[in-house]
Design a protein that fits this description.
This protein is an all-alpha fold. The protein has helices at residues 9-24, 28-57, 63-84, 96-100, 106-134, 139-155, 160-183, 187-204, 209-222, 226-234, 239-243, 247-278, 280-286. The longest helix is centred in the C-terminal third of the chain and has 32 residues, at 247-278. The chain is elongated, with a radius of gyration of 19 Å.
């Protein structure tokens, strides 16, 4: 196995068990700090993808092309998490494999999710605050600021079930990216394993809870700037929609349903299914 350049799906499942166990044994301080780093990395990917594609998003005729371009940038965030080191809530839904195998405790998984989610939120807010106050959103006559607000407004306008289903499909792909990265034994393989599923999820327009910890706060903070607010109105947003973009709707209209969807997508459709296919019989035989 040491000479193999990649692991089989069954071997990936075994590696995921050990990786998940290690994650649950981290101290709360490490979980928070590594969570902050991951939040920062995903926020950088979010703001960078916005900068790359905002002009294309402004024209309905090139909107899809803009999503393709944004997706090609966004994967950098997960690459930084996996290679440089970080704890990302969405990827950590795979800890369920360790729990199902009886290696990690349910309480340990929930503790990891709580502290990592908190860290992700702190890291994302840091970058949202710095981006808005850096003046970067003034690009193209504040068109980038208007686009940032429009993205956030759209995300809090979703119904609960729309956000939930978009969250499921998002983390299904994100956890497949992590799963395949586990299977590669060299850096190039890990980067390529991450790139394509993340490119697909962004191009598809699915909802990622940690990315939304940047997208929506950035929009909330940006609308407090008169120039960005006026640019958003000029771009077609109504005052009612802008009023509906706030810290309360961040939670109730997006983060809660998207987070629940992310948990289902990662824990059930990736971790749970692969555990059943490759590890369930081994556990049953051992018992």
């Amino acid at each position: 196995m040491e000479n193999k350049i990649f692991l089989t799906p069954g071997e990936i499942a075994e590696h995921t068990v050990e990786s998940g166990l290690k994650k649950t044994l981290l101290s709360p301080l490490k979980m928070i700090l590594l969570g902050i780093l991951a939040g920062v990395f995903i926020a950088f990917a979010s703001e960078g993808s916005n900068m790359a594609a905002y002009n294309l998003w402004a024209d309905p005729g090139t909107y899809g092309l803009g999503k393709v371009l944004a997706g090609s940038i966004f994967g950098t965030g997960l690459m930084l998490v996996v290679i440089a080191g970080g704890e990302l809530f969405t990827g950590n839904t795979l800890i369920i494999v360790s729990v199902l195998q009886g290696k990690a405790k349910l309480s340990g998984m929930l503790k990891n999710w709580f502290f990592v989610y908190l860290g992700n939120f702190i890291g994302s807010l840091m970058i949202a605050f710095m981006i808005v106050n850096s003046g970067q959103l003034g690009a193209s006559g504040a068109l980038l600021g208007a686009t940032t607000i429009k993205i956030a407004s759209y995300k809090v306008s979703l119904s609960f079930m729309e956000a939930f289903y978009l969250g499921i499909m998002c983390n299904w792909l994100v956890c497949l990216a992590v799963w395949m990265a586990y299977g590669s034994r060299d850096m190039i393989g890990k980067l390529m394993a991450i790139f394509f599923p993340i490119w697909l999820f962004i191009t598809s327009g699915f909802e990622h809870s940690v990315a939304n910890m940047y997208y929506i706060p950035a929009g909330i903070l940006a609308k407090a700037n008169t120039a960005y607010y006026d640019a958003a109105i000029a771009a077609g947003l109504t005052a009612e929609k802008l009023d509906a973009l706030n810290w309360g709707t961040l939670m109730t209209r997006n983060l809660i349903p998207v987070t629940l969807g992310n948990i289902v997508g990662g824990s059930l459709f990736v971790g749970g299914i692969y555990w059943f296919l490759y590890l369930y019989k081994k556990k049953k035989t051992a018992n």
